[in-house]
Design a protein that fits this description.
The chain is mainly β and 110 residues long. The protein has 1 helix and 9 strands, in the order βββββαββββ. The mean pLDDT is 93.
Amino acid sequence: MTDFLWVPSFSSAASIKVRLKKTKFGDGYEQRGTDGINMVTRDWDLTFNKRTDSEADDIEAFLEANAGTALSWTPPGGIAALKYTCDSWKRSYLGFDSNDLVLPFTQVFE
């Protein structure tokens, strides 16, 4: 597993999802329970604002070279690295030597 070492901008955001099994009964009654041992996932939209062409190219080359494999990355405030995949991303050209990137990191359990 390869480490993702670039530091994202402060505008990066986490999306936390709890996976539950739900069964609905009559009269609006509903029963819920956890689904599996890894029921909480934390996906991230990492943003890299105003990065040079060179840094943006390096990030894209890294993602292309590691396509389909899990990446090791430590979220902000995290103690340990977790496993993520990044199957697509967006790059905006802002002007001379200035780029924004948005990388959706999806947490995986292997």
